[in-house]
Amino acid sequence: MEHTLIVAGIGPGGKDFILPKALTAIKRAHYLVGGHRALSDYASENQETYAVTGKLAPLAQWIKEALSKDDVVVMVSGDPGYYSLLPWLKKQFPECPLTVIPGISSVQAAYCALAQPWQGSEWLSFHGRVPDDDKLMFSEGRKLSFLTDGVHNPAFIAEYLMGKGWPGETPASACEHLSYENQHIVTSTLSEIAKLDGFEESVMVVG
């Protein structure tokens, strides 16, 4: 029988935010892949694990060898359909049966923490990339959300957007450690967020 690659979204991080279906797949896995924090939270002693780093070639080889023996579960933060390892896994293992279990994205968690609806919001990412200019130009009533990183943090993004014509008084929020006990949210304006330190791995909501 051909073994299956299972991609399980674990949500924004807090254990209360993972779907039962994903948790069941993780608990049943013999071969489990994930970030260091996810493995610390969910892996058990009887599982063979691989911690995801920036080096993907060794990860692909490990998964290939594991799939020859059993199913492999890959934990991804947030939802697998939103800037995760899913496209890379599909490219690396195009012939392998694939099951994807959804998770709550960090952007959803951010809007809920802000008690705001997100319909109509444009979901983009500054995590390891810069969106095209035409996706960042100001228009009245527009609402954007971003994943951020160490280089493109909310302060950088605020300055970048103001350079694209966004008024400094535009409402903006920076949200980090979503769903964890140390969740931290700053809600202000673009001009004030531009002065904000930190929030490297976070979600930013604008508009």
From TrEMBL:
Q: GO terms for biological process?
A: cobalamin biosynthetic process; methylation
Alphabetical list of InterPro entries matching this protein: 4pyrrol_Mease, 4pyrrol_Methylase_sf, 4pyrrole_Mease_sub1, 4pyrrole_Mease_sub2, CbiE, Cobalamin_biosynth_MTase
List, alphabetically, the CDD domains matched: Precorrin-6Y-MT
What keywords sit in the KW lines?
Cobalamin biosynthesis, Methyltransferase, S-adenosyl-L-methionine, Transferase
- All copies of the Tetrapyrrole methylase domain together span 4-194
Q: Its Gene Ontology molecular function terms?
A: protein methyltransferase activity
Q: What is this protein called?
A: Tetrapyrrole methylase domain-containing protein
Q: Which organism is it from?
A: Dialister hominis
